[in-house]
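Session log. Operator J.P. requested a structure for one protein chain; no other inputs attached. Running the standard single-chain path with token output.
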Amino acid sequence: MGTLQKYFKQSATYKIFTGVYDTFYDFVDTLGKITQNGIQLIKALIKGGIDRKELIYQCSRFGVSSLPITLTIVGMTSVIVASQVALEMVKQGGGNFIGMMMSILIVREVAVIMSGFAIISMIGSSIASEIATMRVTEQIDAIRVLKVDPVSYLFVPRVLSGIIMMPFVTIIAAAVGVLAGAVTSDLFAGLSYRAYFDSAWLGIYMKDLWVSLLKAVFFGGTIALISCSCGYYASGGAKGVGLATTKAVVWSFVAIVVWDMIFAVAFFF
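Structure written below.
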């Protein structure tokens, strides 16, 4: 019996089963920890006592530091899309709809999604590695010894900064994206700026703007909460810091795609 069990554990079936089980267990465990931290975060916000100096620093980090890479990604994405479709639409007699199409695409999706991806790559990973390093070097244990709530001290300024600054980053990114689309349409298809912006103005409604900003609020808070949570439960030294950072990035990417699908179904289906 023991020999049979030994051979079974070495089989591909057993390895596949244990791999699926471990993945599912890790998913449920991580989701539970993030939810638990979210509840503790809400309780800390209700109690008040926010460190304003730290909040301002995190806002600067979340908003200002991420702008160069965010604007670059959104701008280049707009250039790529406009260069692909502008000339063809002009050939088919649809030049008057280029601005409308670009503005709807950028405001509803490109600006907020690409801003989220950029912030995850730059800020989310940084937050996760920072808190993970504090965990493995026992700095968080020292905070507890000083009778300071780690969630209130570490999570609140970072999550609030994501909620506050993400909409501003999205607004700037959307403006840059629409402008990049106008320049590209003029260069590639000879479409005048007036025709482009007249079409863009007619294609955008206040609903699009409000949904995009609301989406940005959820994206910013989710990215910060996931990054903090993954870093908070890190273990195992330098390897644990790397795993926590990777998990934070992957979970954040998945989370904002899920949020985006929920918003699309709720507001535009």
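Operator note: The chain has one domain: 15-268.
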